[in-house]
Amino acid sequence: MAIVIDSETKLTYEDYVLFPEDGRIHEIIAGEHHMTPAPGTYHQTLSRRIQFQLYEQIEERGLGVVFDAPTDVQLSEIDIVQPDLLVVLAGREGIVAPAKVIGPPDLVVEILSGSTEAKDRLLKRDLYQKAGVPEYWLVDPGRHEVEIYRLRQGRYEGAGVFREEILYTAIPGVRVDLRRVW
Prior knowledge:
By secondary structure, this protein is α+β, with helices and mostly antiparallel strands. The chain is 21% helix and 37% strand.
């Protein structure tokens, strides 16, 4: 049910579950509805290749769980998103509920597209920072590179732009070989 904050009506998870299952991506950010078309095939190929590497090294070793879209992530009463990929590390599985993840994942990966780039670079980056997501990867399919942001004292700092390999610092030894992604 929508709520009123500072005299503005904001959508909540109760409103979110009423959105149609129409093949589009529906999200609520700061209580406002955002909708984008379903991702293209190259986007999905990159997502699967990154997910497979994370799954092998994290989930198969019992170090956490890896989810792909569409997985609902409720970061607050008025912030519900569907990241392309996310990781919840072992010991934090309590945030994984049957229908959604409730709270900030340990890693969020967004793959840029023409319809999502501005939202992913600005709106979602600010949202993930505010929610306390420790690490955020922005995958740029056109440039064949990944920008990484890590949370330091409540603010994201750029950790670099990577074209060949990413080391996931939360788990020593976990890496994504980008040469196998592109």
